[in-house]
Amino acid sequence: MQLIWQYSGIMSQGCYTMYGWCGKILRIDLANMRFYAEEPEDSLLHSCIGGRGLAGHYLFPEVTRNWDDPAMPLLLFTGPLVDTASPTSGRMTIMTRSPLTGTVGDTSVGGNLGTFLKKAGWDGVIITGKSDFLCGIEIDGKNVSITDASHLRGMNTGELSQHIKGKGAIAAIGPAAEKGVLFSSVMIDGRFAAGRNGIGCVFASKNIKYLRVNGSGRTQIFNPKELKKARTDITRLIAASPALLGELGIGRYGTPALYDLMHTRRMMPTDNFKKTRFDYAPMMNAFTLHKTYQPQRAGCRGCHINCKKIAPDGTTIPEFESLSHFSALLNNSDLSSVVEANRICNELGMDTISAASTLACYEELEGRTLASSEILDLLHDIGLGRGVGIALGQGSARYAQSRGCPESSISVKQQELPAYDPRGAYGMALAYATSTRGGCHLRAYPISHEILRKPVATDRFTFSGKARVIKIAEDLNAAVDSLTACKFVFFAASLEEYAHVFFAVTGVSTSAQSLLKAGERIYYRERIMNAINGFSRNDDDLPSRFFEEEGSSGHTISIPPLNRKDFLEARSNYYKIRGLNDRGIPTGEKARELGLTWKR
Amino acid sequence: MEALIYKYEHKLSEAGLTSEGAPLMGALDAELLWNRHDRKTPFLEMIFKKLNITALLFSEPKEPYRTIIDHLCRSSSGTIFPEDSETRTFLHDLPVTDGLDDTRVVSLLKQRKCVLIPGHGIIAFGTVSPEQAFITYSSVCFATFVKFFSDMLFKKKRGMISGEESMIFRRVRNMLDAPIPNAPMLARSPFSDEQEMVRAIEEAGKEVVRYGLVDSYFGNISYCFRNTLYISQTSSSLDELVGCIDPCPLDGSSCAGITASSELLTHLEIAKTSGAKAILHGHPKFAVIISMDCDRDDCPTRGLCHRRCPEKRYLDNIPIVPGEVGTGPFGLCNTVPSAVAEANGVIVYGHGVFTTGISDFNEAFSRLLTIENRARAEYFRRFDE
């Protein structure tokens, strides 16, 4: 079966040219097999920017729906900087309501999908309804077609990427999403994971196996000369960044370059966060990976940092989070099994952080260390919906609850925590708690200053001053996810430079502070959406383990438990600075100030 | 936060950038804290309300920076464009406004990290820590100093200097501290253990700052000890290196040094190729200024001198090479390691100086000081010629 639709609307009226944005959003209604283009007002594009901001705008009116309600939108949005010479702009956002957490659910993903969507002439795609059959969505410029993908049911993501004919980028789910794994991911081109939050489940709930996008258009640039200059300013900063293009940076080693650092700072989550130091870490680091697999540099389109590492045989080298959690968190010293675990997760379409952390929870509840072969077997069981894997596929929080031991799940808002122990970086502790999508390091990424010393170093063992720093960083990253750009580049550059890029691309005057303000609005709207769904202060908290147990102190570094009183004071300060009431709920006054609607 | 605003207030005056007690510094978390009461506080509070920031610094600079900045502000048309490496990389340009109009100041601070107000001083902010405001302030003083002396020499050589400018130049010149002729006595090698060696790095770092051979933030330092390069961390102050030195094994077997200085690769290459154990990188002002003095107005790469210069240039026997911060095709890692071997020292165009010592920091420090003093003498010789 194949349905084809072609958009024939005329976007440009008279001599009006839109720079940066395409000015068109594609709506796909799978229930009625209808497609149409929407042309958003300029004012909407200017205030929401794109990516996460624009997706949030379209999620807002539907956010009380259950994630598997056919009317729940699945939103795929690019930003104005995508498909331009702006450094690291090959990313995009996929958003919906999270099956795992019930919060706003979104993921920023690299690869080629964002660029091809833009080249196809769309700022975003909004998918609603549910197909009667397992389908593939194919977007080729203005042509949209729905194909029968029943024969692809159960197919792994890598194989599927090879199987789909046609040019462009592919977003696909694996068997895990089809089996209802709540932390299932969407894989872009079989390599780039749109992980976290279980977005893959929403694809599955709509009966979408894959989305292929191709296009050959070009994003119009307002001032190419100015863009070149702004780009030079940013690439100069990138070259000056040790974390990015330094001898030991992620350009050379990929994100595993952080592995040794977390080990030496004694904040590597080990044994389900019971310890913060893993004795085998020096043998499992980026250097060893490099020596063993001799990977080459790869990356998202439009990025010269190239943090993705791929071995000559095609093996994708795990990211830092996956490396750390499949080794230290599980007490697993078998490096090859870590690489294999990463491959299995990618193939089956599962978030590596949640998968590893759920296994660590299982390990704790079983009271034994899993053998490396057992880890791999269990990953297959989860992804293929077999045996205990069915229960584990619901994530650690639900699994631990079902075993009567909720404290064994190291999660926030039911999403498992990444590979930075919060006892080793107090800003990270606060940021985990306040994140609008549950346990996540990327909403504020205070590791940047608490560990990587950028833009300057802050004291990682204090909450003093962190409330405002976290709030500003959340605003910053909301803007970055909307432009869109890669958060890594902000180890070096800042919105000061990206404001110049934004103007050069779009012709819309802005400033670093104006972009931050847009980020604040985007973030606050997410808080409102979560509040509507019942999230409040009680959810902005950390597992009790971090307040009761110390980490692995030693070698002049002390890792005591977090001081509960200090944490609560910082959270209270954060609420005040963010403009929330003392229960963490948005206020009408602040919402009005930001031009948002909120009545409680 | 409170401790930090006092710390950086003190550092500003200690570095000779402001008079004691002059800086007004505020830090905002849930509550706004000031280092002292001042009639300008309400003005700055307005700025805090309009910007998403955590720290604000406002201070009149000490002489000679005050005269230099006022002069550059008045002769600018709203923006100063220094051409030193740090400004090009981190500050880009320096916006100027007249008077304490909060609306105007806010609009400029929305764009850049600081604003210069002739007759009043410099306002700088931080989004993470008061340290950012301090760094920006310090960088502005450095950049304007370099620009002032560079511009004056350029104009003097081409007969473009006005009477008023000559007068200002004389005034500034008379305000300069006398050069320090002798290097300090630093710890001598061999170092018995890692601890002793690290203490030697810390000591040398402090002295580099005390001698004014780097503003207190930039610059870096390393020592190669038992197959490991110990190097100052990125964003570390050379006078505060305790706990801020990263060990980087020469075989690359650990990435824990990902927080090391952005010049790690350059240090590694120097250590591997020259055999020198001690490496210093400072930003002595006159060496930077003299590196930017070139008479080839018709050079096809004029304006790109920081990236590529077609000539082999020297100050005495010290090579002057192009190169930008860090790595990349135009990075100084491509030019410095080979050049430094020529004379145990090299000047990087518009940026700073690298020097080496075979066994400890005495030789490297002495070389750094000699180069700066020689550059200063040469500057005034060329000016007076």
How are the secondary structure elements laid out?
The complex is a heterodimer of chains A (600) and B (385).
Chain A: E1 2-6, E2 25-29, E3 34-38, H1 42-48, H2 51-59, E4 74-77, E5 92-97, E6 104-109, H3 113-119, E7 124-128, E8 135-140, E9 143-148, H4 157-163, E10 169-172, H5 175-178, E11 186-188, E12 192-194, H6 199-205, E13 208-214, H7 224-239, H8 242-245, H9 250-253, H10 259-264, H11 286-293, E14 296-298, E15 308-310, H12 320-327, H13 335-348, H14 352-366, H15 372-384, H16 388-392, H17 396-402, E16 411-412, E17 415-416, H18 426-434, H19 447-450, H20 466-483, H21 495-506, H22 512-532, H23 545-548, H24 564-578, H25 588-593
Parallel strand pairs in A: 2-7, 8-13
Antiparallel strand pairs in A: 1-9, 2-3, 4-5, 4-7, 5-6, 8-9, 10-11, 10-13, 11-12, 14-15, 16-17
Helix pairs in contact in A: 1-2, 2-20, 2-22, 7-21, 12-13, 12-14, 13-15, 14-17, 18-20, 20-22, 20-24, 21-22
Chain B: H1 2-14, E1 24-28, E2 32-34, H2 41-50, E3 55-59, H3 65-75, E4 79-80, H4 85-91, E5 94-95, H5 102-109, E6 114-117, E7 121-126, H6 130-157, H7 163-175, H8 194-210, E8 220-225, E9 228-232, E10 245-249, H9 264-274, E11 278-282, H10 285-291, E12 313-315, E13 318-321, H11 336-343, E14 345-348, E15 352-357, H12 361-384
Parallel strand pairs in B: 13-14
Antiparallel strand pairs in B: 1-2, 1-3, 3-7, 4-5, 6-7, 8-9, 8-11, 9-10, 11-15, 12-13, 14-15
Helix pairs in contact in B: 1-6, 2-5, 3-6, 6-10, 9-11, 10-12
Describe what you observe in this structure:
The complex is a heterodimer of chains A (600) and B (385). Chain A is of the alpha+beta class and 600 residues long. Chain A has a domain at 2-214: Aldehyde ferredoxin oxidoreductase, N-terminal domain (Aldehyde Ferredoxin Oxidoreductase,  A, domain 1). Helix content of chain A is 38%, strand content 12%. Chain A is built from 25 helices and 17 strands. A seven-stranded mixed beta sheet of chain A has the order 1-9-8-13-10-11-12. In chain A, strands 3-2-7-4-5-6 form a six-stranded mixed beta sheet. Chain A has a two-stranded antiparallel ribbon with strand order 14-15. Chain B has two domains: 2-175, L-fuculose-1-phosphate Aldolase; 194-384, Class II aldolase/adducin N-terminal domain (L-fuculose-1-phosphate Aldolase). Helices cover 41% and strands 17% of the residues of chain B. Chain B contains twelve helices and 15 strands. Chain B has an eight-stranded mixed beta sheet with strand order 10-9-8-11-15-14-13-12, with helices on both faces. A five-stranded antiparallel beta sheet of chain B has the order 2-1-3-7-6, with helices on both faces. Chains A and B meet through helix 7, helix 8, helix 10, helix 20 and helix 21 of A and helix 4, helix 6 and helix 9 of B.
